[in-house]
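FAQ: What does the model actually see?

It sees only this:
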Amino acid sequence: MKSVNKLYAIVIACFFLIFSTVCFLSPASAGEADRLSSAKASFDVDKMGDMSGFDPSNPVTPTGDTIKIALVMPFSGPAAVIGETWYLFLQWAAHDYNQRGGIFVDGKKKLVEVIKADNQSKQTQTKKISERMALVEKVHVLAGCASTPNTIVMQNTAAKYKIIGHNCGGMADNLMDAQNFNRYTFKTLYDTNQFGTGLAYYYGQIRKKEKKFYVLCQDYSYGHSTASAFMEGLKKYFPDAVIVGEDYHPLFLKDFAPYLTKIQASGAEAIFTADWHPDLTNLIKQARELNIMIPIASKDMDNPQLTLQLGMDGSRNLFSISPNYAANPVFKTEEQKKFHTMWIDLWAKWSLPYNIDKYKYPEVSSGHTMMQFYWLLSVIERAKSTDPEKIIQVWEDDTFRVLNGSVWKMRPCDHRVIYDLAVTEIVPPEEQKAAYNIPPYHWFEDRCFTGPVSVIPAGNVLPYMDKELDRCKGKNGWGE
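And it is asked to produce this:
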């Protein structure tokens, strides 16, 4: 009898040990999974207008009494591709709503007008063009912006003139902290903290293979903050992991050999980087040329142009974190398949620069950008007004279901987005069926691309919250 009681006690102790461990490591799985199960509004394929005439190179832009959105992005200079990409997806969403007849605001239906506001990737120009958009064009929304300093300028301009600022391009944690927060700006892109922490969670709680990591990032605030988030995330989610090297390189580096030689000597089993293109492309290409075939994890690995350049072998062992993905397969509903077919048919008719592989699949790569703009337009639609106060009232604590079925939540105290992230492995065509579950059962037949997907619940990658911000004092990570 005593042995039975002893065995029973051991079983109970083990149960509570496992339960407490799961609760500590996976807060989202302990009662939080249902937080993002319902939404106040959704992207609805069946409500879309006639998109057959949409051509991003020759957009139909209404004028007059419209809902005006200025896209503050680089449309010239070395980073012009950023403006090109965001413009495609904002114009798509605007065209859709315009084909429906516009949005009922302020007592009448109005069409959506998108205005290019070229900031040339410069702070002085960002201030100049944002001021012009506010004072001369009388826009209702300033949307953008590439790079932290430029985004802060755009946000400050929005607050100064009391118009909505839509941060759809700046990732830095400090953009919505106590110093930079303003109630007119909403951030719909994940933080550097979520980026770094998410990949740490993936390696420690999902993949569970590599333990020795080398951190190599660009030498400025974004690179350092993302690297710090990754290393702190490993302490929490993968305490057995070891950082065998940490380096920061200049932007637009041509020769990565000095850093790659150190990686080879370190015994690293995986590389973490927050680099963006062209540095990311050059880093991976040169690593593979030196026969460094270990896993490399970052974001933007699901770029078809990148994997084509790297070749079938060179693009293996790449891992990309993004909010674009939900659990596989990608096409779960008839609505998702309908949208996919519509986009592919139109893409085939477009001209440069939009008929390249980078824009072929909205479910991956930059598709997340499109959903950010649909959320913005949905908020305006439900506010029934261009009055910023009414828009703020709707957007704070709003929830929105996007194309992949995930639900996004706007944290009310600091206007940061909460959502699941996912890591996708870049794999050869024969393994892509895990994601691309409709004929021809692969994204591309001549390169590696998105395959298995691992979802990281939102509760494990909550955005940074500055407790010095009065609005957030006493709140938990969900803003409650």
